[in-house]
């Protein structure tokens, strides 16, 4: 097919435009969708709040616990098993589209922190879908093409994000550096691997693999080591009670502090204080 326009000639050679199978723009107070998959690709954008979209990693035979927060989106390829959860007390505004895709290759999911452009694309797509539902297009072909072009724009944004990412080695270093900074700033609070991964914008299982390769220890081991070192300092340089030392260092309880000291130092916190008190 060839169509003329004022700026020249547009040649459309049997182009297959993506078709939207499902779209919604909703605010949830709470929601639970059990593990499922569909043939269509899916892009989920968090306008505000947070939601959980665990994805199944066939390679490691594990679920990647993924938290999406405001301004983040995830692209889930068709055929990938995933969940969708919004916890009570943590309302979430989500924009979501499921669309047909010709590429059926085994692709990983992609988590991205938006620079604002993806939100604009979602709004464009929503306007096109609204116009279609209101019968504002002259014919079905024009409607399908216009909506398909909006989806293609969305796909292009995802691909550009991938292309602009650093090379694998420097990317790994960047992610681990970000994780280390986050841990240093928050290890005295109650944090989990999922919190760190969500802050960075990657899957927790992927982050754990990178972290071990770069540092030689797991994230949990690293956090425990930081908390242990802080506990030692407080035990020998303060008059805080053992309970307060445990809380101040991030262990949360005297029992947990004692367990770590028994495993790492082979003595109790009280004995360590007595042996090393200045």
Task: Give the end-to-end Cα distance, rounded to a whole number of Å.
Answer: 86 Å
The percent range for helix content is 40-55%
Structural class by SSE content: alpha+beta
Number of helices: 9
SSE topology:
Blueprint: E1 2-5, E2 8-11, E3 20-28, E4 31-36, E5 41-52, E6 55-57, E7 62-64, E8 67-69, E9 72-76, E10 82-86, E11 92-99, E12 110-113, H1 117-133, H2 140-163, H3 168-186, H4 193-200, H5 204-215, H6 219-237, H7 242-249, H8 254-264, H9 269-276
Antiparallel strand pairs: 1-2, 3-11, 4-10, 5-8, 5-9, 5-11, 6-7, 9-12
Structural overview:
The protein contains nine helices and twelve strands. The strands form four sheets. Strands 3, 5, 8, 9, 11 and 12 form a six-stranded antiparallel β-sheet that branches. A two-stranded antiparallel ribbon has the order 1-2. Strands 4-10 form a two-stranded antiparallel sheet. It has helices spanning 117-133, 140-163, 168-186, 193-200, 204-215, 219-237, 242-249, 254-264, 269-276; strands at 2-5, 8-11, 20-28, 31-36, 41-52, 55-57, 62-64, 67-69, 72-76, 82-86, 92-99, 110-113. Helix content is 45%, strand content 24%. Helix 3 (168-186) packs across helix 4 and helix 3 packs across helix 5. Mean pLDDT is 84; it is low at 1-13 and 165-169. The protein is α+β, with helices and mostly antiparallel strands and 278 residues long. The relative contact order is 0.10. A hairpin with a 2-residue loop joins strand 1 and strand 2.
